Amino acid sequence: MSTVEIVSFGYLHDAPPTAHLTIDLxxxxxxPHVSPELRYMTAEDAPVRAAVLATPGITALVDATATAxxxxxxxxxxxxxxxxxxxxxxxxxxxxxxxxxxxxxxRDGHRVTVAHRDLHRPVVxx
Length: 126
Fold this sequence. Notes:
Elements: E1 3-10, E2 21-24, H1 36-39, H2 46-53, H3 58-73, E3 81-87, H4 93-107, E4 111-116
Parallel strand pairs: 1-3, 1-4, 2-3
Helix pairs in contact: 2-4, 3-4
Domain RapZ C-terminal: 3-120
Organism: Streptomyces lasalocidi (Streptomyces lasaliensis)
Protein name: ATPase
């Protein structure tokens, strides 16, 4: 299989990184930021991961993105496939999605790296 780079990010911090696939998680998936008990946590915390992964549709999107990555990997040009996935602040949905996607892609035989561009930035006050 191929090498896949996954970068999670927050749209409120900077422009999306360059990628073959960019997944925008801002509008269709529940934001843990709205829960006071989760707001200052990150995807490194189990309650945040559980909340994001319990959102209807998120696992289907992980599966669909994995299918798209595999299609890119089998294209005529060999090379690394880059996936960027973003949410508002880059602390909850995007890094959780990135970790779930990485796990799925590794099961499919891909070599995967994950970087969280904005995970450790301060909470965006909205």
